[in-house]
Write a structure and sequence with these properties.
This protein is α+β, with helices and mostly antiparallel strands. The protein has one domain. 31% of the residues lie in helices and 17% in strands. The radius of gyration is 31 Å and the shape is elongated.
């Protein structure tokens, strides 16, 4: 009899524990959050990544505006160093001017100086991911589309290799530099219509906790977001260096 009562008591205690456990909701929120946490974190990172991409685009637009001004005012075309006889920045020098790394020796001087007032890029953009492209167009008043530069009036198609290096910038040139500045180029001269494009490969996070969070952001095979900032200008009247008649 005593054993039966003991077994019945244990069974009753077990049933009470199970019933209490079923009614306990104190840890439900923690369990539910644990179930949705991976998707929630991936969503937050995707939102942050999208916001940073827009911020990078705006920074690139500002740099393109400042870089185009070098051509607008003739600073790039009239640039002259003692190391070259003809005025005008080379492609590499123009990109260095945008990055704030251009140094040169002015005519009549023996000491190298820095060009400009530092980098035109915001601190969160790296020059190693930047490509500058310059093309020219015809006249705004032209009635024939054929009189315009083909590359300046069509959307550029940029091609990159497996390492992320630009191999084609839409005008048949590459090597990550700007083309066409200098005295022998069609970019030189006052009143020309010039199209300046800065292309930047913005890195993106491809996946997080098993979720693909860059499929709608990355547009490059190497999981980069290809950012393009474009400025169209008409060069002002500017003075060429002493001793030159065209620049």
């Amino acid at each position: 009899m005593q054993l039966a009562r003991q077994n019945w008591g244990q069974g009753r205690w077990t049933r009470q524990c199970i019933a209490a456990l079923r009614c306990d909701r104190s840890g439900a929120a923690a369990i539910e959050f644990a179930l949705i946490m991976p998707a929630f974190i991936a969503l937050l990172v995707a939102i942050l990544q999208t916001a940073l991409t827009y911020m990078a685009q705006e920074g690139l637009e500002t740099a393109a505006e400042a870089g185009a001004r070098l051509l607008l005012t003739g600073q790039a075309q009239s640039f002259q160093s003692t190391s070259v006889s003809n005025p005008g920045m080379t492609g590499a020098q123009f990109q260095q001017a945008i990055c704030g790394t251009l140094t040169y020796t002015p005519s009549g001087s023996s000491s190298a100086v820095a060009f400009g007032n530092g980098s035109l890029l915001p601190p969160f953009l790296s020059c190693s991911q930047l490509t500058a492209v310059v093309t020219t167009a015809g006249s705004f008043g032209s009635t024939s589309a054929s009189s315009f530069s083909t590359t300046a009036n069509t959307a550029p198609t940029f091609t990159f290799d497996t390492t992320g290096t630009l191999t084609n910038n839409g005008s048949g040139t590459a090597n990550g530099t700007v083309y066409g500045t200098g005295v022998t180029s069609t970019v030189g001269g006052q009143g020309n219509i010039i199209v300046v494009q800065l292309v930047y490969l913005w890195p993106t996070l491809t996946s997080l906790l098993g979720f693909n969070i860059s499929s709608n952001i990355a547009n490059d095979p190497n999981s980069y977001r290809e950012l393009v900032a474009t400025q169209v200008i008409v060069t002002e009247n500017y003075s060429c260096p002493t001793g030159t008649t065209i620049c």
